[in-house]
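Supplementary material to the annual report.
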Amino acid sequence: MSNEKLLTRRGLFMKLGILFNGLVAAALAVPILRYVLSSVTRGRANAYFEWVPLGRVTEFPEGETRLATFRNPNVMPADGQTVNTACWVRHIEGEEFQVFAINCAHLGCPVRWFPQSGLFMCPCHGGAYYRDGSRASGPPERGLFEYPHKVKDGLITIQAGELPTPGSPTAALDTERPPCA
Amino acid sequence: MRVISQVGEWFERRLQLAEVIRETVEHPVPRKTASWFYVFGSAALAVFVLQVVTGILLAIIYVPSAAEAWNSLQMLNHDVTLGWFIRALHGWGSNFMVAIVLIHMVQVFLFGAYKFPRELTWIVGVFLLLMTLGMAFSGQVLRFDQDAYWGLGIGASIAGRVPILGPATVKLMLGGPIIAGATLSRFFALHVFVIPGLLIGLVSVHLLMVLKLGVNDWPMPGRIVKRATYAAEYEELVKKDGEPFVPYAIWKDLFFSAIILAAVAACAIYFGPFGPSGRPDPTIIQTAPRPDYFFLWLYALLSLLPPSLETPALLIGPVVAIFALILLPFVFGEGEKSWRRRPIAVLSILLIAVTLGTFTHLAGFAPWSPHMNAWSGDPVPERFLKGTTALERQGALVFQVKQCRNCHSLGELGGLRGPTLDSVAVRLTGDQLIRQVIQGGGNMPAYGKNLSPAETTALVAFLMTLHPAGQSPARDAAIQQSQTPPASPRQ
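Predicted assembly:
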């Protein structure tokens, strides 16, 4: 076999050297990749399921929609103001609430509530939603994102660990309702 | 003098660069290419060097922390001696860089320089363009203000639309579940280490190929590029009609680069630095985020595409565009170089320029965005109120209070999202107006739940007065004329 003749001692060592480097590279690649992807693989850590208080039920008059702010439970030391988040709380009646993410379902700009016309309007691309969060007009393909909420000891609390985007679990909580008009 | 040459020799003995430098400097270029059309590449390089230098200068003050970035930018603007000027140079340098890279690309395309054997130079150039845009976007993020925060939100919303991998992509991009400290840190790493490193590497390869393959010969109508004969023809051309790059051609590059750098400096002094706008506090929702100049066309596109087409266009469009650019030199690698013989090439450039220009122009006044303060801020012009009844005036009030004005303009004031209503009564009858207000339709929300019958009556009475003097309002042909409400002409 002519191939065997070509394989000299030096040649073998070089190949072994390349193989050795390949093994070390592969061994290093695993922790490096795990580090780079840690923000993805961390999954829905505890903070996701924390119930964040927005305020007392009495602060949100029945039949009205008010802005509430909270600090995201996923806070890190260098986050500064960015973990402060706003949301719209609609008190329907009794213990019935809806808590909407501030982010337009189109591209995430902050929607504003106009009680006079009963509409949420987005300043970016002109999306509009009815008071129950359902889509009224404009580019959004769906209604506003809603946070899971519950009332406990007179406090309204929500689960709000992530920025709602079209594919996120928050978006999956789409409560289909007929538009109110 | 002897000492200098001795020192020179000492270095040369060790570096052995003299030959390489001489070859580079003296490499022959076809006489006709010493043209003012061939200066954009070197100008882009000059601005890139400016960006590296000013970027390093900014990095010695800037704090890449979500909590401190905005404050450190304020400090640069106001407290650090000439900090504002360095920021302005970097910001304007970025705008100039994108513009020059695009102009360079158009010139290369129209002069057929992407054809054989310079296909790889073009492909590397496509990646250089993408990285330049990547630098522009990541740079906007580092200006960590309201626009940056909501711009990231828009980026995340686009990334979130990727099928299956969407949520993972968002978390990878943001460095976590929300836009926060980790997001800024990773964009800092991208903007300062990753993309510049790749840029320096690819610019070197790009330049190396320009030297090895020679600068593109001046396109002559009828001089056809053929793979089999091009190399010999080019060699012949340079031998017969070539001149050394230095000084024959370089003086124009030097002049143009200096003019561009001076223009960047002039803009920096005159217009000053970009922002930062408001603090990156997401609880401040009174904001209308806008992208930087070079992404305005995208802002327009995202507003004007039909909703059902948006996700496919966002996810497939860029892939198609990049593939088209990469495939271009392979599909059209031979043939005519001269733009005089390539009408489709010229028309494509014109079409793209007009499209991008139109979108950018539209984004300048964003007719698709409601004017959030029009209802409370814009006055109802006097001519629409003169001689109106109490009911009609009540209707004008309803029109303002219910925020109709945010989307509909009157007398050129107000939103442009919906049609202007200056002469709506000519287009719609009273019944049609009532139906439109209550049920909505087209792109208008339904107001049935938010208007009492009395408010609707007043509003429609006001809308019915909106027609030019001398032009009667629309009427339902099925109803006898005497039954239609009396019209009171205005204007």
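Chain A touches chain B through 62 residues (CB under 8 Å).
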